[in-house]
Specification:
CATH architecture: 3-Layer(aba) Sandwich
Order of helices and strands: EHEHEHEHEHEHHHE
Strand order of the largest sheet: 3-2-1-4-5-6-7
Bound molecules: NADP nicotinamide-adenine-dinucleotide phosphate
Number of domains: 1
Number of helices: 8
Largest sheet: 7 strands, parallel
Shape: globular
Number of strands: 7
Structural class: alpha/beta
Radius of gyration: 18 Å
């Protein structure tokens, strides 16, 4: 079954990624690592990208222990040549890419907008927007040529609601949401589906400083109806859903997973 065909009967079978090949960026830790392991568990072979070779190799080892193929590709996605070479290396190893998880991202600052420097702005936009756009267009274009595919981007609740002290990050994730809709419309006829996961606060390296802060950590939990931050594993199911034929009629959407934070 291809990712774009209506699912056959039997709901659990619709979530299978057997025979699929997936490229996951930012796979060395956090959400990317968890999503990569989940796709492998569902049957996919993986190409993993990040800047840190050692943790990436460790994740590749975890995937191989599940009986799937995994290649670790060290690259800084903000460097055009490295990004292009990473995509080439993924295609060389896997032959094709059926699923792209465009997950690599950064949130390095927590400060009032008036204090944000141009250098901070540039590094956030280069990573979260520019690298993501050109990665998606590179791989998505090839998916159109091959007859279909599924792209998952990582937006954020900060794309949906204003988040004081995270202006540049929130704007970068709003850009991802808009990119997701636009690419979905452009590529729907070629059976390439593009959807975004928009998590609330999930416990990873990215959020540990905030969530462990006595004041901000408590404030975030208080603003979340479920009263807690999420765990990376709580994003795994939606990622497998969006990568698989189970979501064959879903495209151009933002899937919010946030413990109820933006429901009110
Ligand atoms: N955690 C949350 O609460 C949350 C909420 C909403 C959205 N998100 C989004 O989810 C995604 C993953 O977040 P996370 O919490 O898992 O973050 P994380 O733990 O900090 O991991 C980020 C990943 O991106 C990679 N990366 C960063 N810059 C890169 C670059 N220039 N080139 C290649 N790889 C790069 C990192 O690896 P290296 O450092 O080794 O390169 C790492 O694997 C991000 O897009 C984030 O914005 C997270």
């Amino acid at each position: 079954m291809t990712t774009h065909m209506p699912p056959a009967a039997g709901v659990m079978g619709q979530f299978s990624l057997a025979g699929k090949r997936a490229l996951v960026t930012g796979a060395s830790r956090g959400l990317g690592r968890t999503i990569a392991l989940a796709l492998a568990e569902a049957g996919a072979d993986l190409a993993l990208v990040a800047r840190s070779a050692e943790p990436l190799a460790a994740v590749a080892g975890e995937i191989e222990a599940l009986g799937r193929q995994a290649i670790a590709i060290r690259a800084d996605l903000t460097v055009t040549l490295e990004r292009r070479q990473a995509v080439e290396a993924a295609y060389a190893a896997l032959g094709r890419v059926d699923v792209l998880v465009c997950n690599a991202g950064i949130s390095p600052i927590w400060k009032r907008s008036a204090k944000v420097t141009e250098e901070e702005w540039d590094v956030i936009m280069d990573t979260n927007v520019k690298a993501a756009f050109f990665l998606c267009t590179d791989v998505g274009g090839r998916m159109c040529d091959q007859g279909g595919g599924a792209i998952i981007t990582l937006a954020s609740v900060a794309a949906v609601v204003g988040t004081p002290r995270m202006a540049a990050y929130g704007m970068s994730k709003a850009a991802i949401a808009q990119m997701t809709r636009t690419l979905a419309l452009e590529w729907a006829p070629q059976h390439v589906r593009v959807n975004a996961i928009a998590p609330g606060y999930i416990e990873t390296d990215m959020t540990s400083g905030l969530l462990n802060h006595p004041y901000w950590g408590a404030a975030i939990r208080q603003a979340t109806p479920m009263g807690r931050a999420g765990q990376p594993q709580e994003i795994a199911g939606i990622a497998v859903y969006l990568a698989s034929p189970a979501s064959s009629f879903a495209t151009g959407q933002l899937f919010i997973v946030d413990g109820g934070a933006v429901a009110g």
